Amino acid sequence: MSKVTVIDHPLVQHKLSLLRDKDTGSKAFRELVNELALLMGYEVTKNLPLVEKTIDTPMQPATVHVLANEKIAVVPILRAGLGMADGIMNLIPNAKLGHIGLYRNPDTLMPTSYYCKLPSDIEERETIIVDPMLATGNSAIEAVNVVKKAGSKSIRLVCLIAAPEGIYAMQKAHNDVDIYVASIDEKLNDHGYIVPGLGDAGDRLFGTK
Description:
Blueprint: E1 4-6, H1 10-20, H2 26-44, E2 50-56, E3 61-67, E4 72-78, H3 82-91, E5 96-97, E6 99-104, E7 111-117, E8 126-130, E9 133-134, H4 138-149, E10 154-158, E11 161-162, H5 164-173, E12 178-181, E13 183-184, E14 187-188, E15 194-195, H6 201-206
Parallel strand pairs: 1-12, 4-5, 4-6, 4-8, 8-10, 9-11, 10-12, 11-13
Antiparallel strand pairs: 2-3, 6-7, 14-15
Helix pairs in contact: 1-2, 2-3
């Protein structure tokens, strides 16, 4: 079974509380999502493998540690995942950025794909999929399906808030994808929204309804 990590760092929890507040406007919401993604990125990349390398310092040669695989792809699920992409990319500026566009049918809650653009060498990369909300899990499952079909073999999913139902569905569909969240909330409501959650992340990011 894949691992679920709840990142409970005080700054993450503080910023998440501000994010939940219905009075937080779009500008502040975007900034908070970016900051949360950056902070969470440290934990998400914590177990990336390292190898030894010899370099020359101004004083003498030294044996240091570098990433065994510097090829990393950050893949936001459109549109709300865009809010998290920059935070991760600020942490790993040499990563390549892909995009997966999914639209959730409001009646069936099932995703429909409308766009996909991934790095051509995705099969060689550590892939980090980002989306603020893991609700039913359907969109995340489909995004992982797409990335796996493209050849990626090492995938991590990063969300700000998850519902237990979404985690269960994700683990059932892809038990090799580790999940990182800032909070596991109570449940889904009848409309498939996370409770207590923070509302529609995409609308709050971009000021739409």
